[in-house]
């Protein structure tokens, strides 16, 4: 990690507008210009320390030094995260809430989700065969909405599918700084929470029976450290926070489909899956393509690091996009190369598209296992069972937009499915469930 002493300051009195304008470029560009992986700036009128790289991530995810309470911008709570959820908690209360989420992620339940996803995708592909063109990104959002609700024990009526898919997508799309997208995300969250509150109430009153291993049941019956049930709104927020991140996987799946098209030499490797190549491919998609640009936290107590004095309650921003491409951790980071993950000495702080550190006690996303599992299964399925044509289109994506996706949404035509038995489908798309701390 390269840190200048004293750490430099970015030009400009306040860089909020530049951040919104430059998007994913803002933090890596400033770090490069200033020649330091740590620098000071002002955002929303507040002094902020920005940093990037594996070493910075290791400090940032130290629960003894940083806290999440009060760090997320207030608008994100209204649209993306919800209020009262685990994202903004710290200490023992956070650990207990995190254990609630992790109890949903047993190997059997992860396998259930993979199976549901593949079955849902298989049904969708049958529909694609009758369509003139398919916008892959839009279809992935619907597939994951259907599969996510089924897995979570949330009843989803057929006439509700389009609405709930649109709402979940609007929430994920709300964090990039656009007023119109924020308003759409806020409206979507309000609708979703009302819907999920009714489901929580029905479960508690015995009017709706769901399996005891489903997130809907677990959250409806979860008790906090004081022994009380979650209030209905917080329970709805957390149930939403189970389903919504699954929909965000649509971005990675779309970028993965683009990667299969732009790097045809990997298609056969994904299909054969020698040495778990589909896992390497999924990891490289998550590393290479952009999703979350940064994460914020507040200093928990005064401490000194790299001769810089971090003061209590100071806001610190970690460059996630830049860390995933930091040259100290990754050889030729701007190249798409899945093979880099063969014999990779795994670090919980160099690959952080969904947070860093420990899944069990830290703020690393509990759904990360599900994301990788679904990506592997989908890419295996596509390489084995689907043929299609990729017409000429704009596959570029803007790094000034957060989140971002190929401008065309990745359009495919002339979709055809290989006719195979369900048993064969299960055999070739089943992926090893790996859970690591």
Briefly summarize what is shown.
This protein is of the alpha+beta class.
List the keywords.
437 residues; 16 helices; alpha+beta; five-stranded mixed sheet; three-stranded antiparallel sheet; single chain; Cytochrome p450
Question: In words, what does this structure look like?
Answer:
There is one protein chain. The protein is an alpha+beta fold. It has one domain: Cytochrome p450 (Orthogonal Bundle). The chain has 16 helices and ten strands. The strands form three sheets. Strands 1-2-8-5-3 form a five-stranded mixed sheet, sandwiched between helices. It has a three-stranded antiparallel sheet with strand order 4-10-9. β1 and β2 form a beta hairpin. α11 packs parallel to α15.
The topology string of helices and strands comes to HHEEHEHHHEHHHHHHHEEEEHHEEH
**Any idea how many domains?**
1
Helix content: 40-55%
Query: What integer value in Å does the Rg equal?
Result: 21 Å
Per CATH, which architecture? Orthogonal Bundle
Under CATH, the homologous superfamily reads Cytochrome P450
Estimated structural class: alpha+beta
Distance between the termini: 24 Å
Tally of helical segments? 16
